[in-house]
Structure formats: C-alpha cells, structure tokens
Design brief:
Helix 5 (148-158) packs parallel to helix 10 (308-318) and helix 9 (280-291) crosses helix 10. The model has no long low-confidence stretch (mean pLDDT 97). With 380 residues, this protein is of the alpha+beta class. Strands 1, 2, 3, 4, 5, 8, 9, 10, 11 and 12 form a ten-stranded mixed sheet that branches. A two-stranded antiparallel sheet has the order 6-7. The protein is 34% helix and 20% strand. The protein has helices at 26-41, 66-73, 91-104, 137-142, 148-158, 163-179, 213-218, 249-254, 280-291, 308-318, 331-334, 338-356, and strands at residues 4-11, 15-16, 51-54, 82-85, 110-118, 189-192, 198-201, 238-248, 261-270, 300-303, 360-367, 371-379. The chain is globular, with a radius of gyration of 19 Å. The chain has a domain at 4-123 and 237-379: Peroxisomal Thiolase, Chain A, domain 1 (3-Layer(aba) Sandwich). Pfam families: Thiolase_C, Thiolase_N. The active site is at residues 89, 336, 366. Keywords: Acyltransferase, Transferase. InterPro entries: Thiolase, Thiolase-like, Thiolase_C, Thiolase_CS, Thiolase_N. Residues 5-249 form the Thiolase N-terminal domain.
Length: 380
C-alpha cells in the first residue's frame, strides 16, 4: 500500500465576479494552474496518472469534462486522463481526497486533485435550468431544502449570533488577508484591468485593505428583512482555479522530490440538509478523532467562510484558538470560486504551515444539501 503525500499545492489569484479574470475561460484558467503546478515541482507531466477535477456548475464552458479539456490545454501528454466531479463547495477538496486514496490503494504513483470555477462566465445554478425550484418537489417538501442564505440565518438564530458578531469576523477576515506580505501559493495570472488593459494579477482581487465598519453595518440583509446575513459577511462570488500534486512517498523520494505533507485524516460527512451548513462541526470532530489529535494540537485551521455565521457556530462548538483559524483571511475576503476553493484552501494551509513552521493543519468546508469535507495534514 502506498503512502500519499503532498508535493505541492498552488492556486490562481481569486478574482471578483466580472473582475480581472472575466475574459479567461475556466478551462484555460485550470490549465494554467496545472502547468504551473508541475513546473514548480519539476515533474514530467507524463508521470501524472490521473487528474481529478472539482467543478460545481458543469455546463457551458465548464461542461464536457472540464478537467480533461484543461489537461489537454496545459500541454500534458494525451495519455494523462482526467475526470470531473461535483461535491459542491467541497469539490476540489474531495478531488484531493480521491487522488490520495488512489495512491494509498497502490493504483498510481502521481495524481493531481484540482478544481476550477468561473462564476462570471458560468453563473451559479445555470446547470439547473429554471433555478432552485427545479429540484425534486419531494425533497423541497420532505427534506425542507432551502437556500443556503436561509440556512445561515437559522444558524444565527440557533447559536445566538448577532449582526455585530458576523460583521466583526468579516472585517477581521479582510484585515488578515490584507496584512499578508507574501502569497507563496499563488501563481501570478494574466488578466484585464477595468479598462481592458492586460495586467498580471498576483494577489486576490476581492480583499478590501480598509473596511469601513459603518458602511458594513449599513448593508441590508439579503435573505430576511430582519436577518443578519449580508453581502459583507458572506463569501464573495469569484473566479479561480487550484491544483494539488499528490504522490506515493516512496516513488517521489526515489525520483528526488521532497514531500511537503502527509495525510492524517480525510473525511466526508452528511448532516441536516435544512441547516445545511453545520456539517463542519461533526466533520471536524470525526477528522480529529481519525487523526488521533485534539483541536488544541492544530497549528493552522482553514474553515471556509461561506458565511460568517458558519465559522462562528463552528467556533462555539469546537472552542479553538481563533488566532489559528484562517490566519491569512478567508473566503469573505479572498472569495469562493466554488469548485476551486477546496484546493485553494489546501494550498493556503500548506504554505501557511511552512511560513510559520507549523506542523498540523485542519481544513473543513460546509457543503450544500447538508454535507462537509475535512482534511488533517502533517507537514513533513
């Protein structure tokens, strides 16, 4: 049986909707992440035995197995296959899990888990022609499937989270993202400025370097008139891609490559589909149990900031050191290009552990319809 390790993890900058990456096709965006990944490691792309791609809205330019299209655009040999999957917001985190599992099974020596989403060019829900209402009426009735924003409001009610709490976490997310001096996981990517001139984007476009608390407090709730969820305390709609190179440790070391981290736990859970976003709580507990550690042992924690209320409810239950939670900011600041975020958070965590000489990291993400993914890694 193989021991899966992470050799490298990268991402493009995350751009705002209709921002710098508005004219970049998602297959081209992912191709850049794939080629940049193997180039950074110095790996012959012909050694990659599978590319597993996460993408949520698989239609239009993200249809037709966008992972395989990107592999060809990246100039990989035609013998390198690819598959595209959808575990919603956890898609590329799941892609990394599948890559690691294939290596652990002894099926291959090198695999890439990756993801992409251009929410500008392929709008969310465009794969459900007619929108959310096209879901099976039995599910809407019997399972009370609701919009994630309403789930976020119900979380606020259950955990007694105030608007001030949510806005404060959001402002801190921007502050931490703005305070970063370097972005080692980001591959500079060509894009366009507002006038259409070509630029090189080397950091996340959505980060606000100064947050005005008064203006944030004036934003109107989106899902309830008396609610607390606003555009300011929710993740940004974004464009981006990410890629993680996973290898069998023995094979990589024999090829002269240095593993950066190994997996201690890989978890996917189901949870209440109405509350929908609370799966991060049982997923974290299960991942920590599988890894044989406590939350106090962790040096770096990535909790996807789909909504501020999700992170705050998770924190109320797990009681972590919040200085270790999203130390470089989260999706409220840098954005959430659905299928790419999982790999992006993994890249951020891996390089964050290296930058701080940390050892143990946890990544956990809430997912639509009541699921969550979690990963624990140990830096080597």
């Amino acid at each position: 049986m193989g021991e899966p390790v992470i050799l490298e993890a990268v991402r493009t900058p995350f751009a705002r909707r209709d921002g710098a990456l508005r004219e970049t096709r998602p297959d081209e965006l992912l191709a850049g992440a794939l080629s940049g990944l193997v180039e950074r490691v110095g790996l012959d792309p012909g050694l990659v035995e599978d590319v597993i791609c996460g993408c949520v809205t698989q239609t239009g330019e993200q249809g037709a197995n966008v992972g395989r299209l990107a592999v060809m655009l990246a100039g990989f040999p035609v013998e390198v296959p690819a598959v595209t999957l959808n575990r919603m917001c956890g898609s590329s985190q799941q892609a990394v899990h599948f890559a690691a599992q294939a290596i652990a099974a002894g099926d291959m020596a090198y695999a890439i888990g990756c993801g992409v989403e251009s929410m500008t060019r392929v709008p969310m829900f465009s794969d459900i022609h007619g929108g959310f209402e096209r879901l099976n009426p039995r599910l809407l009735r019997e399972r009370e499937l609701i919009h994630q924003g309403e789930s976020a409001e119900r979380i606020a009610e259950r955990w007694k989270i105030t608007r001030e709490d949510a806005d404060s976490l959001s402002a801190e997310s921007h502050r931490r993202a703005s305070a970063r001096k370097e972005h080692p996981e980001i591959l500079p990517t060509r894009g366009l400025d507002a006038e259409g001139g070509e630029i090189e984007l080397a950091s996340d476009e959505g980060v606000r370097h100064r947050v005005d608390p008064e203006k944030m407090a004036q934003l109107r709730p989106v899902f309830r008139e008396d609610g607390i969820v606003t555009a300011g305390n929710s993740s940004q709609i974004s464009d981006g891609a990410s890629a993680v190179l996973v290898a069998d440790r023995e094979a990589a070391e024999a090829d002269g490559l240095r593993p950066k981290a190994r997996f201690l736990a890989r978890v996917a859970v189901g949870d209440d589909p109405t509350m929908q976003l609370t799966g991060v709580i049982p997923a974290t507990r299960l991942a920590l149990k599988k890894a044989g550690i406590s939350i106090a042992d962790l040096d770096w924690i990535e909790v996807n900031e789909a909504f501020a209320t999700v992170v705050l409810a998770w924190a109320a239950e797990l009681e972590p050191d919040m200085e270790k939670v999203n130390p470089w900011g989260g999706a409220i600041a840098h954005g959430h290009p659905l299928g790419a975020t999982g790999g992006g958070l993994m890249a951020k965590m891996l390089h964050g552990l290296e930058a701080t000489d940390g050892q143990l990291g946890l990544q956990v993400m809430c997912i639509g319809h009541g699921m969550a993914t979690a990963t624990v890694i140990e830096r080597l």
